[in-house]
Design goal:
With about 450 residues, the protein is α+β, with helices and mostly antiparallel strands. It folds into 2 domains: about 55-195, GAF domain (Beta-Lactamase), CATH 3.30.450.40; about 220-455, 4-Layer Sandwich (Phosphatase 2c, domain 1), CATH 3.60.40.10. The protein is built from 12 helices and 14 strands. It has helices at about 1-20, 20-55, 60-75, 100-110, 125-135, 170-215, 255-260, 275-295, 300-315, 390-395, 405-420, 425-440; strands at about 75-80, 95, 140-150, 155-165, 230-235, 245-250, 265-270, 320-330, 335-340, 345-350, 355, 375-380, 385-390, 450-455. The strands form 3 sheets. It has a 5-stranded antiparallel beta sheet. A 5-stranded antiparallel beta sheet has the order 6-7-8-9-12, with helices on one face. Helix 3 packs antiparallel against helix 6 (about 170-215) and helix 8 (about 275-295) runs antiparallel to helix 9 (about 300-315). The longest helix is centred in the middle third of the chain and has 47 residues, at about 170-215.
Length: about 450
């Protein structure tokens, strides 16, 4: 093949040498000119591709497109009409290389009502009407056009125009125009992706801030209360969760010593759903509940009032809340409680070595305006262990698809309580068993999981 190429080149040289000297010189000049033009075009395309790889400002990139088309195709001017992501004309990014006519044409495009509609660029008939508008404006010129497409979506229209008497629009012209249009489509698509990434980063920052705020709303440590040990942990499925627990003195104005021997409210709840909406609602309920605790009312009255206060907001959000509210008198060890359809806490009795479920009748918070709640009470004894938890614990799926369930939780609580472990040790052991059952090393659960352990000192 190499020998054939050499023979062919030699034949071409012989043919050139056989021509008259003037004709030979003209042909050589033409070949040189074409070669130079090809080099220039290649340089222009390389410059555009380099700009595409390194651009950070879409507007600056789009400003180059009409200028490049005029050089590459060799025409009087060029017009770029990009579409926004919703398909309407992107009027702020109209670009044109011929400064004499752009103001009048831009005015027509700004007044083109059809182009303002969402999805305009997604229908072929609208592209045709846009082409007609442009061609009417350049009625004394030759106009060729091509679509800017990326990932199957129309991203705009690219035009080249020149005087009527100048014939252009050959296959090579159209190919050059299409190459520029394709690179423009990539640039617009990249900018859309960058905008999505930026928006996600903003949302991530907001979620992180929300998670930080919510983590500060949960008690950072358990209070010191005479005669009992407390341990608690919330494990959200996402950065922001819908689980909530709290410890609140009913007389916060008292001294720390007086509060430790006074009455305390223990509460645990769960907003149906996960993520930011659930976290926002639980934050709202926390504020309402803390105000209710100060009234000193019985648990059933507090849940009744809370339901009335939160009903409108919960109805609008189409969410409900389960909540277990209890108050504990450190002197008498009397625990009163009311339940708004939450998982009943599990009490391990040190005296009988048996399990008691603390439950009382009551509807979800936010379900009915006139919901009524029952009130129960019990006196805790030395060595008793009380476990509050959310359904993210018992509903956690194992590797076999089986749920952790309440029976398994009771079994482990009974085992660790019989071993005489402290509240924090029992809590740690329960989470270890839960993680082992789910089979995750990063402690990631499908739903928010919270547990609070109270142990009465022996």
């Amino acid at each position: 093949m190499k020998e054939n190429s050499l023979i062919s080149e030699q034949q071409n040289l012989n043919q050139l040498n056989s021509l008259p000297s003037s004709a030979s010189k003209s042909l050589k000049d033409l070949i040189h000119s074409l070669s130079q033009e090809q080099i220039i075009n290649q340089d222009l395309l390389l410059s555009l591709s380099f700009t595409l790889r390194s651009f950070t400002n879409l507007q600056r990139f789009l400003e180059l497109i009409p200028l490049l088309v005029t050089q590459l195709v060799g025409v009087k001017g060029s017009l770029l009409i990009p579409f926004q992501d919703n398909g309407s004309l992107w009027r702020e990014q109209l670009q044109m290389s011929s400064g004499d006519e752009d103001k009048e044409l831009f005015r027509k495009l700004f007044l083109f009502d059809e182009g303002k509609k969402i999805g305009f660029g997604m229908e072929e008939k609208n592209i045709v009407s846009l082409d007609r508008l442009v061609q009417r404006h350049f009625e004394s010129s030759n106009v060729i056009a091509t679509s800017i497409v990326s990932r199957g979506r129309h991203r705009g229209r690219l035009y080249a125009f020149d005087k009527k008497e100048i014939v252009f629009g050959s296959n090579i012209h159209r190919k050059h125009l299409q190459i520029v249009a394709d690179l423009t489509g990539v640039a617009i698509e990249n900018d859309v992706i960058f905008q999505v990434i930026r928006n996600h980063e903003k949302v991530d920052r907001q979620i992180s801030i929300g998670a930080e705020i919510q983590s500060q709303l949960l008690p950072d440590k358990c209070p010191i209360i005479d005669g009992v040990e407390l341990a608690a942990c919330c494990r959200p499925a996402f950065q922001v969760g819908g689980d909530y627990y709290d410890f609140m003195p009913t007389r916060p104005e008292l001294s720390e010593t007086a509060k430790s021997s006074g009455r305390w409210a223990f509460v645990i709840g769960d907003v149906m759903g996960k993520g930011v909406p659930a976290g926002l609602l639980m934050t709202m309920l926390r504020g309402m509940l803390r105000a209710e605790v100060l009234t000193g009312l019985a648990p059933d009255s507090i849940l009744h009032d809370l339901n009335q206060l939160a009903l409108e907001d919960l109805t609008q959000s189409h969410r409900f809340v389960t909540l277990f509210y209890s108050d504990f008198d450190a002197k008498s060890r009397k625990l009163r409680f009311a339940n708004a359809a939450h998982n009943p806490p599990i009490l391990w009795s040190a005296k009988s070595k048996s399990i008691i479920r603390l439950d009382a009748p009551g509807l979800l918070i936010g379900l009915q305006s006139e919901a009524e709640y029952g009130c129960g009470e019990i006196f805790l004894q030395p060595g008793d262990v009380l476990l509050y938890y959310t359904d993210g614990v018992t509903e956690a799926p194992g590797m076999s698809g089986e749920r952790f369930d309440e029976n398994r939780l009771i079994t482990f609580l009974d085992k660790f309580a019989r071993e005489g472990l402290g509240a924090q040790q029992i809590l740690n052991k329960l989470f270890e068993r839960l993680d082992g059952f789910v089979g995750v090393s990063d402690h990631h659960l499908e739903d928010d999981a919270s547990m609070v352990v109270l142990k009465v000192n022996e």
